[in-house]
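Lecture notes, part 5. Sequence design as translation. It can be helpful to think of inverse folding as translation between two languages: the language of shapes and the language of residues. The source text, in structure tokens, appears below.
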């Protein structure tokens, strides 16, 4: 990034963070500013009271003056002790309030990304991680800015005081601050760039750490003895990030060490001069005290200004990621004038749809023409990786087709707001979620209007055949389905969660979808993959009833469960290779008939007499395996 662009980015970040903190905690911000100013002038007041008191001792006046100066010194000393505590409280409260707002706004912006592509982009993920990191502590940024400001005020005060004693010496001390300032800025720039560079390694390290401590991976790690291997990889990533951090720390150590030596030489020289001057009567004892306090004060303030500015610079560079994420435009184009999405009456049509995940990826769909008629069930079958789930993602508009279009009763789905489109769809995805919520909430999130409606939730659970299992849990629908958290229940005892079986989770996912069964389109991507034979039969019988007269799309590798679909489309080589009803496809003797025959043959005993029924009819057209 060029220097002017970087400066513009930092100015933007500074404006955004200021506005954010002001909106989050205006009173605390002003109070923190006042406290910072008081903290800035306190050391100068202490130095002046000390000088005046010492001069008063050497050439005594009325005793009341000395008492007044002592009282003043005590008062500013007290102020100096109390103010940092108040400042710490204000800074912490400011941080909490600003963090709440910053994180809320960040994730509101992330929520506005309607598609999935950004969440699959590692550069974006790194940016999001850094944005989240800087949103977690906006107070640090304010503190750095205020620390630099406070040090500047103290610096001006001490420079004035030092100038009273020796203007030349003041100039030397200030001149020594210029290289320190430039050096610190450069270091902070390097540090911010290094933080960005080590992002991918830190993400990988986080991944291995999570694997090593997660219940989901514990089984395989133990069975396959992967612990040492994963730990090795985690350590390798950590070593590489540590090497970068170490290089940076060493650079800072050398640079800052040189600055400390420079400061020591200047103040040592000054001290010799002022003592000699006092000996020859050129300056007073009070001036010596003021000089010593001013030199220490100027150098500490220069450090404070430089350090604060450098930290601010670095925070602003990192906070730039927050501004970038917040300012990222829509990931999917939205129409300037959105079209209305009519209730589905005719059907959904894919017109010559081509799709690949990016220019670097191969084509997944290569000109798919397909119609999902209203009120009918269409089943989609095909080999692994043939693009079935991809097609579902396009229907939900998680991505736009690379070429071609999808029409909802003739309306291009790119012309309607995505939220409206998705509101018309109910779905069970192949990789459905298992939320660390209680059973009620796990179902109710299928339709948030059911969150306070246990009757609807129970009805959906009954339809998915999971009600009995949930009702039998220790706290029924209020049982936490996770061991990740402890929830305080009505009593004093915390209640740990329970663990469901894979099939029970799948039924919960189905129940979630059933809350939306009145929607225009129901998508069921492998809805029974984890169910036992009886449960599968039961679920599909239930689904058949729910699907009757509704527009649905059913994906399953178990062809017996989709044979009664109104239409079956076979995806192969990125196109629809065959379509028709079960009987038609069997008669074609193509891909579908071959797959169906293969599966059916697995259920027959070549030596046993064939029983009558649906499956035996299919077996009759099956091929020898
Ligand atoms: N997010 C993604 N980024 C890149 N490629 C992807 C992504 N998701 C899927 N693919 C690729 O797209 C192709 C189709 O995947 P998809 O999941 O749609 O197949 P599928 O027919 O649903 O497979 P299965 O029957 O195994 O569930 C595969 O080659 C897969 O590797």
């Amino acid at each position: 990034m060029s220097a002017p662009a970087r400066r513009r980015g930092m100015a933007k970040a500074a404006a955004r963070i200021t506005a954010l903190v002001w909106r989050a905690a205006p009173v605390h911000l002003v109070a923190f500013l006042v406290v910072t100013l008081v903290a800035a002038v306190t050391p100068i007041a202490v130095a002046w009271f000390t000088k005046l008191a010492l001069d008063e001792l050497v050439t005594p006046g009325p005793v009341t003056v000395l008492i007044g100066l002592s009282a003043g010194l005590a008062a500013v000393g007290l102020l100096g002790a109390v103010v940092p505590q108040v400042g710490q409280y204000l800074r912490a409260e400011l941080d909490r309030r600003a963090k709440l707002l910053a994180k809320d706004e960040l994730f509101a912006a992330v929520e506005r990304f309607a598609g999935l592509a950004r969440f699959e982009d590692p550069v974006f993920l790194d940016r999001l991680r850094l944005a989240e990191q800087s949103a977690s502590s906006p107070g640090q940024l304010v503190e750095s800015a205020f620390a630099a400001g406070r040090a500047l005020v103290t610096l001006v005060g001490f420079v004035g005081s030092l100038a009273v004693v020796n203007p030349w010496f003041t100039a030397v001390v200030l001149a020594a601050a210029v290289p320190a300032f430039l050096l610190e800025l450069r270091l902070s720039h390097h540090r911010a760039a290094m933080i960005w560079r080590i992002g991918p390694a830190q993400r990988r390290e986080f991944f291995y750490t999570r694997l090593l401590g997660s219940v989901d991976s514990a089984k395989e790690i133990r069975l396959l003895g992967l612990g040492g291997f994963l730990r090795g990889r985690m350590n390798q990533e950590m070593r590489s990030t540590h090497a970068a951090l170490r290089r940076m720390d060493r650079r800072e150590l050398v640079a800052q060490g040189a600055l400390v030596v420079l400061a020591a030489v200047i103040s040592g020289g000054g001290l010799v001069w002022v003592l000699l001057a006092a000996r020859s009567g050129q300056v007073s004892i009070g001036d010596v005290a003021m000089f010593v306090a001013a030199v220490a004060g100027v150098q500490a303030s220069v450090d404070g200004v430089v350090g604060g500015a450098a930290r601010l610079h670095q925070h602003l560079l990192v906070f730039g990621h927050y501004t970038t994420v917040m300012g990222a435009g829509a990931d999917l184009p939205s129409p300037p004038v959105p079209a209305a999405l009519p209730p589905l009456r005719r059907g959904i049509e894919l017109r010559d749809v081509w799709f690949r995940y990016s220019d670097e990826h191969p084509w997944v769909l290569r000109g798919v023409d397909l119609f999902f008629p209203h009120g009918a069930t269409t089943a989609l079958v095909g080999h692994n990786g043939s693009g079935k789930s991809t097609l579902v993602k396009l229907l939900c508009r998680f991505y736009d087709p690379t070429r071609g279009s999808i029409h909802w009763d003739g309306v291009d789905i790119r012309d309607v707001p995505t939220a409206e489109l998705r509101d018309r769809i109910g779905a069970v995805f192949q990789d459905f979620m298992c939320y660390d919520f209680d059973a009620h909430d796990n179902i109710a999130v299928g339709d948030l209007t059911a969150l306070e409606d246990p009757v609807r939730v129970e009805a959906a659970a009954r339809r998915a055949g999971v009600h009995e299992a949930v009702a039998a849990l220790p706290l029924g629908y209020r049982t936490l389905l996770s061991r990740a958290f402890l929830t305080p229940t009505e009593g004093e005892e915390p209640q740990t969660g329970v663990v469901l079986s894979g099939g029970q989770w799948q039924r919960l996912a189905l129940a979630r979808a059933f809350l939306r069964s009145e929607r225009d389109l129901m998508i069921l991507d492998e809805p029974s993959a984890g169910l036992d034979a009886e449960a599968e039969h039961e679920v599909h019988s239930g689904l058949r009833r729910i699907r009757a007269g509704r527009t649905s799309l059913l994906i399953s590798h178990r062809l017996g469960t989709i044979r009664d679909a109104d239409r079956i489309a076979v995806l192969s080589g990125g196109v629809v290779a065959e379509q028709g009803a079960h009987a038609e496809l069997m008669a074609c003797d193509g891909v579908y008939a071959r797959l169906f025959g293969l599966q059916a043959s697995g259920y027959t005993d070549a030596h046993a007499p064939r029983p009558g029924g649906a499956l035996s009819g299919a077996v009759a057209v099956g091929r020898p395996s």
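The translated text above is only one of many valid answers, since several sequences can fold into similar shapes. The mean pLDDT is 85.
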